[in-house]
């Protein structure tokens, strides 16, 4: 039996193989959660789960491709086999190397690929796992959005549309799932020093650096407390909201 605010609560974190998803998983694990790390990259996911277990966290890896309905269904069977879930963090997204083209330069294939993982994938995972959270008597869903969807960053239209869609879906889900004692919220980070952000052009890093209210780079550790709070008991009356964690770059 673990101790902590989320002791033994079964939580799925998608895209937890690296980056913000792994940082979030580590934080929820420190609070005692029983974690499923879901990722398309088995090499990253297995390594991340082993790393967390070495630190005494309950963590198992499950492979999933959010773009494939059958894959999401198979993942759901695995993670709900033992017992009902308490929580879901919809973090996985194509966030790496997707920028660079204005809206009239994007191909339909590029649009479909990003929306297919980031928005449709979030819907597929939520649809597959929410019944287990309902069966367990309620719980938490947190989606990871992006403040880029509020700022309207240039040459990132498909990604921004997907993230705006995720926060709109959050509002809709909060009303659908409120009767089942499930809260649904979005946490939207700003540009964060992580593996994927190394692909972001220097000018965009500079834009954030010059315009944050707090004058320092954002780290993955800046985000995880907000997610842990929204997953916990003290956030039981907060739902349908977007919490922007970006050092005051965009003021929501
Ligand atoms: N890093 C940032 O600056 C930043 C800023 C704002 C929002 N975000 C958001 O935070 C979240 C995490 O971003 P990150 O920077 O850690 O990205 P990342 O690319 O480092 O990690 C994303 C993870 O999702 C997984 N993934 C990708 N496609 C998948 C699929 N089809 N099925 C299953 N898993 C898949 C990847 O393997 C990876 O482990 C994303 O939702 C991203 O949009 C990141």
Radius of gyration equals 17 Å
> What is the CATH topology assignment?
Rossmann fold
Order of helices and strands: EHEHEHEHHEHHEHHE
Domain count: the total is 1
C-alpha termini separation: 40 Å
Bound molecules: nicotinamide-adenine-dinucleotide
CATH architecture grouping: 3-Layer(aba) Sandwich
Q: What is the 3D form?
A: globular
Structural summary, described in words:
With 252 residues, the chain is of the alpha/beta class. The protein has a single domain, classed as NAD(P)-binding Rossmann-like Domain (Rossmann fold, 3-Layer(aba) Sandwich), CATH 3.40.50.720. The chain is built from nine helices and seven strands. A seven-stranded parallel beta sheet has the order 3-2-1-4-5-6-7, with helices on both faces. Strand 1, helix 1 and strand 2 form a beta-alpha-beta unit. It is globular and about 45 Å long. The mean pLDDT is 96. The chain binds nicotinamide-adenine-dinucleotide. Nicotinamide-adenine-dinucleotide binds next to helix 1. The site of nicotinamide-adenine-dinucleotide has 31 residues, from helix 1.
């Amino acid at each position: 039996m673990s101790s902590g605010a989320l002791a033994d609560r079964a939580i799925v974190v998608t895209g937890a193989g690296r980056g913000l998803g792994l940082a979030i998983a580590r934080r929820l694990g420190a609070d005692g959660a029983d974690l499923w790390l879901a990722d398309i990259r088995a090499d990253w996911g297995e390594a991340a789960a082993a790393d967390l277990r070495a630190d005494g966290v309950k963590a198992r890896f499950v492979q999933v491709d959010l773009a494939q309905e059958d894959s999401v269904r198979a993942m759901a069977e695995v993670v709900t086999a033992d017992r009902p879930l308490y929580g879901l963090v919809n973090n996985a997204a194509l966030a790496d190397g997707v920028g660079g083209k204005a809206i009239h330069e994007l191909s339909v294939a590029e649009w479909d690929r990003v929306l297919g993982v980031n928005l449709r994938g979030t819907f597929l995972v939520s649809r597959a796992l929410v019944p287990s959270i309902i069966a367990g008597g309620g719980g938490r869903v947190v989606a990871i959005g992006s403040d880029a969807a509020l700022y309207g960053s240039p040459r990132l239209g498909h990604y921004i549309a997907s993230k705006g869609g995720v926060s709109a879906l959050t509002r809709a889900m909060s009303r659908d799932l409120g009767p089942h004692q499930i809260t649904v919220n979005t946490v939207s980070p700003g540009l964060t020093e992580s593996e994927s952000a190394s692909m972001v052009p220097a000018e965009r890093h500079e834009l954030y650096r010059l315009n944050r209210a707090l004058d320092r780079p954002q780290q993955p550790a800046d985000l995880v407390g907000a997610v842990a709070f929204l997953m916990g008991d003290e956030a039981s009356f907060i739902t349908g909201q977007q919490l922007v964690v970006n050092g005051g770059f965009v003021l929501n």
